[in-house]
Amino acid sequence: METEKKTHTAAEQMTDRDLSEQIKKVTKESHVRAENTELMLSFQRGKVTLPQYKLLLCSLYEIYQALEEELKSIEKDLEYFYGQDWREKIVIPAATKRYSHRLRQIGKENPEFLLAHAYTRYLGDLSGGQVLGRIAQKSMDLKNGDGLSFFAFPGVSSPNLFKQLYRSRMNSVELTEEERNGVLEEAVRAFEFNIQVFEDLQKMLTVSDNNLQSSMTQSKPVKASTLHMSENIYTSSLLRMVLGLFVALATVSVGMYAL
Ligand code: HEM
């Protein structure tokens, strides 16, 4: 972190009042907890299994569907693993539904809080996520980038530069003291949602181990009803448009710089 700080130009110099610094500070402990969930530990040890990875992709799809409009990369991965009728097969645990419900709720009531969620997922994807992508490729011996589109950011040539730009855009968002505190609290909550998703997925894998693993490795349909926790993905186009607009405000300008 120190090294990264030294590379900032005078214009990008961070202060203790910067949202990007504060958000990192308040979520530091949560980050350690997220890294140490069973699912993330399996990943880091190169022990991630196909059933674990497939279920994780299902949840990420649900989360990103609520977070943004552009879903093409996860859809591509899901189609690779589950086949063309993946929409009927994907499995979403209760914790993931709670997470996406929260995203939709704040999209309506406190859209500025979406900043905390965009931060937690995108900066994570561009940090540890890049390492996880390489581990996933090796652990499951995936070839030609198949099933790994989620981790790829073809428009981002330098994740570090992109993260710096992202932070400076975050810092330029005008927030009242109350809104700023709300965003910081929401960031801790965002990590909590992610931790709960990992725990739920791990539970699902343990509970339905034999049943689920055999049906998944054979790419046969998994009956949502047999898992008691799943629901088919549902989309409200109006809501997605509103969320998309907000996220666009917070992130697209950064993306344009990186292109
Ligand atoms: C195997 C699990 C994980 C590993 C090994 C990992 C590793 C890392 C590393 C090395 C960084 C860069 C730290 C720095 O720049 O000082 C980072 C940043 C970050 N990670 Fe993770 N991470 C993991 C899981 C997660 C999860 C589950 C989330 C949230 C869903 C997450 C969200 C973030 C965020 C938001 C940042 C940016 C911090 C900032 O610069 O403000 N990470 N991660």
Automatic annotation (TrEMBL):
GO molecular function, one term: heme binding
Compartmental location: Endoplasmic reticulum
Catalytic activity, EC: 1.14.14.18
Source taxon at top rank: Eukaryota
Alphabetical UniProt keywords: Endoplasmic reticulum, Heme, Iron, Membrane, Metal-binding, Transmembrane, Transmembrane helix
InterPro entries: Haem_Oase (IPR002051), Haem_Oase-like (IPR016053), Haem_Oase-like_multi-hlx (IPR016084)
GO CC, alphabetical: endoplasmic reticulum
Residues bound to heme b: 24, 31, 119, 167
GO biological process terms, semicolon-separated: heme catabolic process; heme oxidation; response to oxidative stress
Pfam families: Heme_oxygenase
Annotated transmembrane regions: 238-258
Catalytic activity of the protein: heme b + 3 reduced [NADPH--hemoprotein reductase] + 3 O2 = biliverdin IXalpha + CO + Fe(2+) + 3 oxidized [NADPH--hemoprotein reductase] + 3 H2O + H(+)
Main location: endoplasmic reticulum
Family: Belongs to the heme oxygenase family.
Name by which UniProt lists this protein: Heme oxygenase
